Amino acid sequence: MLIHFGVILSELDSNKINKIFKIERSVDMVKDMTVGNPTKLILSFSLPLLVGNIFQQLYNMVDALIVGRFVGVKSLAAVGSTGSLAFLVLGFIIGLTSGFSVLAAQRFGAKDEDGLRHSVAMSIYLCAAFTIIITLLSVLTSKSLLLLMKTPADILDDANTYIIIIYMGCIVAFIYNMLAGILRALGDSRTPLYFLIIASILNVILDIAFVVNFNMGVAGAAYATVISQGVSGLLCFIYIKKKFPILKFQKKDWKFNSNTAKHLLKIGLPMSFQFSITAIGVMILQSAINSFGSTVVAAFTAASKVEPLATMPLASLGVTMATYTGQNLGAGKYERIKDGVKKCMIISLIASLIGSALVFLFGRYFVNLFLSEPQEEVINYATKYLNTIALFFFPLGILFIFRNTLQGLGDGLIPLLGGVIELVSRSVIALVFSGIFGYAAVCYASPLSWITAAPWLYICYRIRAKKLIDSET
C-alpha cells in the first residue's frame, strides 16, 4: 500500500496530491455501499440507524412518560392527541430532506464531488424557504385542526400549547434532518446516532427540569424536545464542517441552478407528500379515537409510544435501502440493487418475528410505564391495539423496503401513490367501520392499510428493477 502511494505521489503535482489526500480523508468518514457483501453492509449501516431511531423516539416517549407520571392522564392524552399533527409537519420535513439526500447519495455513488456539493447547497436554499412557509402555516392552523379532529374539550388547551411549541421548532427539525440525511447519503450512519444519544440524554434532563422541577406542564415537555433537537442539529453542522473536506464549499457551489432545484423537488416533494398523506390518515384515525373519550386517547397514546420500539428495525432497514440503492444506482450496479433487496427482505422477516414476540410478551409492561398508577381500563385498550398490529409487522417491513428502494431509484410518484392507498384504506376503516365494530376497527386500521399498499410497491419495484437489468444487458 505504501509503495502504491509512493508511485502515485511521485507522478503528481502538489495540487493533485492535496486533492488525493482530501478524498482519502473523506473516504475514512463515509461508507461506499457499491462494493462488498450486501448483507454485511445493510446490517452495519442499519444497526446505528436502529439505535439512532430508538433515541429519536425517546424524544416523544420521554415527554409522554414524564407528563403521564408527573402531571396526569389527561395531560398524557393532550400530548398524545397531537401526535398525528406533529407527524403531519415533521413527516413532511423528514420526507423532503430524505428526498434531497437521495440525490446526494446518487452523486456520491457516481464519484461526482462537484455535483454532490452543489446538490447540498441547493438543498439548503430550499430547506430555508420551506422552513418559513411550514412554520407559519402550521402555527396558524393548529387549533382549527385539533377541533376538526374532535379533540376532547378537557385536553384541548394543553394539546394546542404543546403542538404550537413543537411547530415553532420546525427550523431545528429541518437543520437536523437535512444534515443527518447528508451524512447518511455519504454512508455515515454512526455520527447522527452519537449526536442523537447526546440530545436524548439532554431531553430527559430538560424534561425533568421543566416538567417536574419548574412545573411547566406540557409546555415544558415541548420546549425540552425542541432544544434537544436543536443541539443535535448544531453538533451535526460542526462535525460536517470539521470532518468532511469533500463538503468544503466553493463560491460556484452556491450559484442557484433551477434545474438542480427542480431535480431535488422532483424527488423530495413526492416523498414529503407521501409522509404527509400517511399523517393525514393517522389524523383521521386519531379523530375516530378521540370520539371514544380521553381514556381511550391516553391508552392509544401509550401504545403508540411502544409500537415504534418494535417496528424501528423495519424502518431502519428501509432507510438503509434508500442509501444503498441510491449509491448503487449512481454507480450503475443494478443487479447489486436487486440482490440487496432480497437480502434485506430476509433480515426484515427475522426482525418482524422478534418485534412481534416482544410486543406479545412485554407490551403490557411497557404501557404501564406511562401511568402514575395502574389503570386497568387504559392498559387493556393499549394492549389490545399492540397485540393486533403485532400480527402484521412483516407486511409493514415489506412496505418500508420497497418504498425506500423506489425512492433510492429516484421514483417519488410510486411511493406517493402507495401513501394514497394507505390513506384511503386507513380512513375507510377508521371512519366507517369504527361505528360498527367500535375500538376493534381502530386496532385494524393501520395493519390493513399496510397490507393494501405493500403489494402495489412490490409490483412497481419488480417492473422498475426489470427495466434496469434489461438496460444493463
UniProtKB/TrEMBL annotation:
Gene Ontology CC: one annotated term: plasma membrane
Molecular-function GO terms, alphabetical: antiporter activity; xenobiotic transmembrane transporter activity
Keyword match Transmembrane: yes
Membrane topology per record: Multi-pass membrane protein
Keyword Cytoplasm: no
Gene Ontology terms: biological process: monoatomic ion transport
Domain of life, per lineage: Bacteria
InterPro entries cross-referenced by the UniProt entry: MATE_fam, MATE_MdtK, MdtK-like
Subcellular localization, as worded in the UniProt entry: Cell membrane
Residue ranges crossing the lipid bilayer per the database entry: 79-103, 124-142, 162-186, 193-214, 220-240, 267-289, 309-326, 346-365, 385-402, 414-433, 439-459
Keywords: Antiport, Cell membrane, Ion transport, Membrane, Transmembrane, Transmembrane helix, Transport
Family statement: Belongs to the multi antimicrobial extrusion (MATE) (TC 2.A.66.1) family.
Primary role: Multidrug efflux pump.
Protein name: Probable multidrug resistance protein NorM
